[in-house]
Specification:
alpha/beta; Rossmann fold; 8 helices; globular
């Protein structure tokens, strides 16, 4: 074997080896990149949803009402901080915001399957005596909310800065890697919305650099005709969308 050819083969082997190592690291750290647990505000009242393998803390306004609001937050959100906003938008409703596993004092580790199962358990625990349940999901939580609304009857669904698929978003961020094969949690919301019948509002931030508007609009197109509508707040970005007056109006919309 000639020296130049040998050098070429060795170089290719090193490149392939480094690429495979990068794939392995990406697969290993995928959940660490997706979930960013944060503590909760201890001053906000809460109750505990006991699961077979974890205790899930639920921040709540502790109000007795047949109208219930279930809230699922972003991947680095203390959902207890959302209660004032939710109380203003839904006066008189009983509000329950779920701290994902590993977040806010909840035990366990977050995965898509576990979070969806916890959301269903929260719904079932909240459904007794309810005359209507509104489900709200923000960012990562929009994927949880979509799967819940596809599996249980809800009065209304609100999706704040939603995506059509975490797998597609990740593939756009890491285009040289087979991300869809490496991810374990896909939150493929577009697969579930066809079965949703509840009136749905998508709140889109026009300057969102985390979840592209195109992703939110692709999700909108997957809903059955007449079920979903979008409200775009043109000047808002991913993190400040709730500060705009149009946000509160969209949240209250029936």
């Amino acid at each position: 074997m000639t020296t130049p050819l040998k050098i070429l083969l060795i170089s290719l082997s090193l490149i392939i080896g480094l690429y495979l190592l990068a794939c392995a690291l990406l697969a290993y750290n995928a959940r660490g990149l997706l979930y960013h647990p944060v503590p909760r505000d201890p001053a906000v009242p809460h109750w505990t949803l006991h699961r077979a393998d974890a205790d899930i803390l639920i921040s709540s306004n502790k109000q007795a009402s047949p109208q219930r609001v279930l809230y699922f937050g972003g991947n680095a959100e203390d959902v207890s901080q959302a209660l004032p906003m939710l109380q203003q938008a839904f006066p008189g409703a009983a509000i329950h915001a779920m701290h994902y596993r590993g977040y806010g004092g909840s035990s366990g580790s977050p995965t898509e399957a576990r979070l969806i199962a916890d959301a269903l358990a929260l719904y079932d625990a909240s459904a007794s005596g309810a005359t209507g349940i509104t489900v709200i999901g923000r960012s990562l939580g929009s994927g949880v909310a979509v799967q819940l609304a596809a599996a249980r009857p809800v009065q209304r669904l609100v999706l704040i800065t939603p995506y059509d698929s975490i797998g597609d978003l990740a593939a756009g961020m890491f285009p040289i890697f087979p991300v869809r094969l490496l991810l374990r949690d896909h939150y493929d919301s577009r697969r579930y919305v066809a079965g949703i019948k509840a009136p749905t509002t998508l709140i889109i931030a026009g300057r969102d650099e985390v979840i592209p508007t195109a992703s939110s609009l692709r999700l909108l197109q997957r809903f059955p005709p007449g079920v979903a509508q979008a409200v775009t707040i043109a000047d808002a970005d991913h993190n400040d969308v709730s500060a705009y007056p149009q946000f509160a109006q969209a949240l209250r919309r029936r």
